[in-house]
Structure formats: structure tokens, C-alpha cells
Amino acid sequence: MFKYVTRAAVVAGSVAGLLFVAASPGTATGGQERQFVVLYAQGGSAEAAHAAIAAAGGTVLSENTAIGVATVTTKSEGFQAAAGASSAIGGVARSTVIGRAPDDGSAVGKASLKLDTAQTDLQGASAGSEKAKKGNKQEPLAGLQWDMQQIGATADGSQRYEQGKGVRVGIIDTGVDGTHPDIAPNFDKALSRNFTTDIPVDANGAEVDGPCEHPSCVDPVDEDDNGHGTHVASEIASPVNKLGIAGIAPKATIVNLRAGQDSGFFFLQPTVDALTYAGDHGIDVVNMSFYVDPWLFNCTNNPADAPEFQAEQRTVIQAMQRALDYAYAHGVTLVAAAGNGATDYTKTIVDASSPDFPAVPGEAPYTRTIPTSCISMPSEGNHVLSVTSTGISKRKAYYSDFGNGYADLSAPGGDVYDTADNKRDITKAILAAYPKQLAEQRGQLNPDGTPNTPSVVESCRKGVCGYYQYLQGTSMASPHAAGVAALAVGRLGVRDRVNGGKKASPDAVERALRGTAIDTPCPTPAAFTYTRQVQQPDGSFVTVTSTQTCEGSRPNNGFFGDGIVNATKVARGH
């Protein structure tokens, strides 16, 4: 799961169920302008919702007509309560600040990304690095892709039977570098969309995305200023072109459905817009390696939350489920990362990370007890396959969230401490495409273009060079499952006469993945203790342990769900 924790002027028009409405005066009271995401009542009319919004002092900026969700601006202090009291409105949640360049030029440089545990352990990695190896028959870096070997997504495995030709995979992430030489051949720029606007600073004045790269603060659809989305896309569908690596479905089409900020935040409106767009445009599989900010867990009536926070979280649950239902009903297989908190989602836990984005000045995360009734979206949504992460030894990764009844499947996501001496080895993470401009900006390349860190690998062919980076997390496990789902669509699908390409029932795809996954039992003992030798700045090592308990049977348990996905079995039909 991706979480580094953890609008500009709108013109009238519409795109695939996303209606943008020109601003009108409304009845605001003259206070500070704020934004809200408004969920229309189930089965109600848009006209009635519009009237309720206007009566509460709000103005619609953008509207998703497919599921009845709108972003609204207002200066009325009582908007949330007034709109929420209307029978035409199903819920109201505070939204993000308007993305615009700050007038005083106070934001300097790019965002300081917040790192979750899985990614923090990659910072400054140096142990066990190695040079690129010649690959198996085709791709020169295939020898570094232990993950593909673990699930049989190799030249001698799944590629012999199915490669996903005609299958469209939506990458709901931070963007995709569509110019990367190991992505460009499979990238559909025309079908791709960016549903976000860069946010330079938050309500507290802290840098979020940093200065906008473009005057509109809206990035092109073939740009990724974070690198996460590009990595995910590459895992799924880098082509076989004898340059660097091959993805699991090397002939599938990559569609960028950007819903994540440069800094890694994923907010409600862009996320539901991406999902409904996927449903309307023949996307077969979407990968969702994130949770919807600002709440890691959404609780409908947690006493730890103020009433307005409870209402906000109820809105997130309902709006996201509507969008997931819509995509599923339109033939989209939904795959999500389980999370990187090393916690059992089926047990009561404590969360101190939310809200992770301030909607108003002074807002900050606070500690609250999370009962099992709370929901993390999208991984706990209906119709979603939640994927846990494995390391090179096939053990569940130390950081991966889990839970008997929560985990559906598992897949390689990397574990740099899955080593004989429990010390970090960067090559035990996952290697995939990396935008060159980010490697340059982050000082990871020498003047001659060669990498100066073992976390980045270069591969060149006929004067064209591609760059690749090691990452780990359930963010990396989920696209492995999504790639295998693309193979299932390729094998089971029939011609999509409306949108082109192929189409298969999400239920049939799920059955194919679950039925071929390799049963992986709980460890013995089931209360498994992870040991990490964590290197300190002075070179010494500190032993860090964590005990996590696996519940369930060999065929289905909390660490692995129905098992580790298997690309070869799905590709050949058994």
C-alpha cells in the first residue's frame, strides 16, 4: 500500500459522467472559503441535491453524475451541518485545499515525502547490492526479478501461454511516466486521465506537492513526479523489448488514471472519479495501492471522533463503495494493497496517523482506538481483492498488514530483511521502472548518467537507457496480483464490442486467481517473530523484533489468504 506516512479554475463541460459546473454566487456568509465532498442521497435526484447545496450556502465545482458525488465550495461556517440535514444529501466530508500556486512564493523545492515503514527501510540502502544480470532468454534484468520467478511470470512460464494482449489495466496512482522506454510501447496516452490538481501547501502552510510544474497545476497524463505509479505500471505491463524488465502481462495496455498527489495523498473525489471513469471506458483491471486520505480507517460512530469527523468518515465509506460497485458492475476487476502497518485488520488496534492531512489550520493526527467495525478504503470495500506481501523466501513480509478474513491473496512485495542474517539487502525488494528525471532530481545519477546508489539500476540497448528502482510494500504486491488478473482476462475474456479489447467477468477473474493460488500455510509456530538487524548511523546494528500471529488453515489464512498468486497456472488455465 502506498502511503508516505503512513482547483484551479473549473470550466463548464463533461467527461464520462464527470460534470464540471461553472461557479455561481450561492449564499455564503463571507467567511473563509472551504471545500467539501457531498454525497447525494441514494436514489435521489441531482436537482434536489443541487438545491440543498445552494440553500446551505455552497457552490458545485465538479460533479460525478455516475454515482452522485460533488465537490462543493462555500464560505458558510454551517455548511456541513446544514447540507447534511437535508434528505437530498447522503453525507458531507471536508475536502482538500484548492490546488494553486501560493502568492508569496513560500513553497520551495519538491515535497518532502512521508515514508511508511516499508519504504523507510529502503532509505540509504547499500547492503547486498549487485550488478544487473543477464536475464532468462529475453530481458537483461530478469535475473534480478526474483518476484517474477516466485509466481511463474517468466519467459518459460506464463509468457508461453498468455501475455494480456488487448487487456486494459488502470493504474490508480500518482501518475505514470508514459515516456519511460520500458512503459511507452504499452501506454495509452489518449485514454489516460489525471483527476488531480497539484497542492503546493496545506492548510497549515506546510509543503505538500511543492511548486506546480505547470501553470495550471495539472500535470500531463504521461508524467509521474513521484515514481510510485510508474513502478506499479511497470510491474504489471512492461513489455518484452530486450531493454530492462518484463511485467507480468507484457502485452497489456497501461492506462494512467491518476488520483494521487505528487506527495502520495489520495483524496476522495479524484479516487471515485477514477473508478467511475474506469467503468465507463472499458478498463478491465484496476490496481489501487493506497488508502483514501485523510483517514486510514473510517469509522461510522467511533466515540473517539467528533461528530463532524464521524459524518465525514461515513461519507468516505458510502462514496467509495458506490464507486467500487459502479466499476465492478461495469466489468472492472478491483485489486488493492492490504497495507504496510504490520497489523491484524480483524482485531481492535490503535491508530495515531489520522487525519493525516489538515482540512483547516491547526488540524493534526490524534490517537484513537479502532474497533473492527471501522473500514479502510478501498482494501476493505466490497468486490475488492486485498493483497498481502511476501518476501523472497515466500514468508509474509514483516510490514504487511494481514487478517483472517481480510487477506484475499498474497503476492511478492519485497522484504529487505528476508535474509539469512536479518540484515537489509536492497535486492530483496522489487525492481521496476523509474522516471529518469526523478533519479536526476534526487541526486541518484552520476554526471555520465550511471546510478550512484544500489537502489537504482540502469539498462541500455541501442543507445536507449531505462532506469529502474527497488521498492517494497504491499503497494508492490497488489500490482503483481493485478498483473495476474490481466492474464486471466486475456485468457477468459471475449471481445468488448463497445470499448474494444477484451472483457471478462470480475467474478470469473477472481475465481481464476483464487483457484490457482498456491496454498501457503501459516508459519510454525503461528505467532511468528520477525527479527531485523537495523543499521544505525554509526554503523552499529540494533535488533528489532515484532511478533505477528497467523490464523486460519493452509487453504486460507490471515497471512496469505487463498495463497500466493500464480501467473503460469492462470495463463494456461489450470
In short:
This protein has 574 residues and is an alpha/beta fold.
Describe the structure.
The structure is a single chain. The protein is 20% helix and 19% strand. The protein is of the alpha/beta class. The protein has two domains: 82 residues; 425 residues, Rossmann fold. The strands form six sheets. The protein has a seven-stranded parallel β-sheet with strand order 8-9-7-10-11-14-15, with helices on both faces. β19 and β20 form a beta hairpin.
Overall structural class, as computed from helix and strand content, comes to alpha/beta
Uncertain stretches of 5 or more adjacent residues = 1-16, 18-30, 98-114, 126-136
Which CATH class of the largest domain is shown? Answer: Alpha Beta
CATH architecture of the largest domain: 3-Layer(aba) Sandwich
Oligomer classification: single chain
What is the number of beta strands? Answer: 22
CATH homologous superfamily designation of the largest domain: Peptidase S8/S53 domain
Share of residues in helices: 10-25%
Largest sheet: 7 strands, parallel
Cα-atom radius of gyration: 23 Å
GO molecular function: serine-type endopeptidase activity
Keywords: Hydrolase, Protease, Serine protease, Signal
Family: Belongs to the peptidase S8 family.
Protein name: Subtilase family protein
Topology overview:
Layout (H helix, E strand, L loop, with lengths): L12 E3 L2 E3 L13 E7 L5 H10 L2 E7 L4 E6 L4 H6 L4 E6 L22 H4 L25 H6 L16 E5 L20 E2 L33 H10 L15 E6 L9 H13 L4 E4 L18 H23 L3 E5 L11 E3 L16 E3 L13 E7 L18 E4 L17 E4 L2 H6 L14 E6 L2 E8 L2 H19 L1 E2 L6 E2 L2 H11 L10 E9 L5 E9 L17 H6 L2
Parallel strand pairs: 7-9, 7-10, 8-9, 10-11, 11-14, 14-15
Antiparallel strand pairs: 1-2, 2-4, 3-5, 3-6, 4-5, 12-13, 16-18, 17-18, 19-20, 21-22
Keywords: Hydrolase, Protease, Serine protease, Signal
GO molecular function: serine-type endopeptidase activity
GO biological process, one term: proteolysis
